[in-house]
Amino acid sequence: MKSRNTAILASALCFFLAGCDDNNKVDASLDKAKDNAAQIQEAASQKADAVKDQANQQIDSIKKESDNQTQQLSDKADSIKDQADQKIDALKQEASSKADAIKADAKEKSDQIIEQSGKIKDSAKAGASNLAEDAANRAQEFKNSLHSDSNTTTTEQQTQTQPAEQQQTDSTQNQ
Fold first, then answer.
1. Cα dihedral sign for 44, 45, 48, 53?
2. For helices 2-18 and 23-174, what crossing angle results, to 10°?
3. What's the start-to-end Cα distance of the chain, in Å?
4. Distance between CA atoms of residues 61 and 68, nearest Å
5. pTM for the full model?
6. What region does 19 belong to: left with phi over 0, alpha with psi -120 to 50, or beta?
7. Is 61 helix (H, G, I), strand (E, B) or coil?
8. CB of 40 closer than 8 Å to CB of 58
9. Is the CB of residue 85 less than 8 Å from the CB of residue 92?
10. Is 47 exposed, middle or buried (0-12, 13-18, 19+ CB in 10 A)?
């Protein structure tokens, strides 16, 4: 639009500058100016269409590239998500395996402790039984020794008291 106005203005200027006195010359110059203006307008229109087509092509190219990049990013995101899911599953399995191993180890140690405590209990019972027997034997020995000491003491006392009694009896008889 601007170029058309410029072309008309340029033609009008040429017209006045040429100083045409004659109508034919004016009409020819006017026709020539109109033709020039039409050519300029057509050229401008063609150039605008070409620029518009080129811009549309660039827009389409940018859209295609953008769609390609979007698809690539989407594929990468899906791939990363799949890898993350696989790693999570692997970690879950590893944790489960470790937990099972820890449980098995704890059960084994618990069983060992129970077995050891049973042995200690049996050993303590046997030791207590031996101590009880030993104490009973010593108590019996002590009783026996007391009893035998008391028998010996009684016998000695009787033996000692008999000569004294006999002396008393003898002295009473002598009198």
1. negative
2. 150
3. 187
4. 10
5. 0.39
6. left
7. helix
8. no
9. no
10. exposed
Give the integer Cα–Cα distance in Å for 36 and 7.
7
Mind listing the pLDDT tens digit for each residue in 80-96? Answer: 999 999 999 999 999 99
At 83, the amino acid letter reads Q
Cα angle 89, 94, 98; round to 5: 150
Query: Could you give the CA distance from residue 95 to residue 41 in angstroms, rounded to a whole number?
Result: 78
Please classify residue 90 by burial: count the beta carbons closer than 10 Å to its beta carbon, then call 0-12 exposed, 13-18 middle and 19+ buried. Answer: exposed
Instruction: Name the residue with tokens 């060992």.
Output: 112
The answer to whether the Cα torsion of 111, 117, 120, 122 is positive or negative is: negative
Between CA 84 and CA 90 the distance in angstroms is 10
Instruction: Quickly list DSSP for 129-158.
Output: HHHHHHHHHHHHHHHHHHHHHHHHHHHHHH
What is the token pair recorded at 147? 């009893």
For residue 12, the one-letter residue type is: A
Quote the CA–CA distance of 151 and 82 in Å, as a whole number: 101
Residue 126, classed as helix, strand or coil, is helix
Q: What percent of the chain has pLDDT over 90?
A: 42
C-alpha distances (whole Å) from 81 to each of 73, 76, 89 are 12, 8, 12
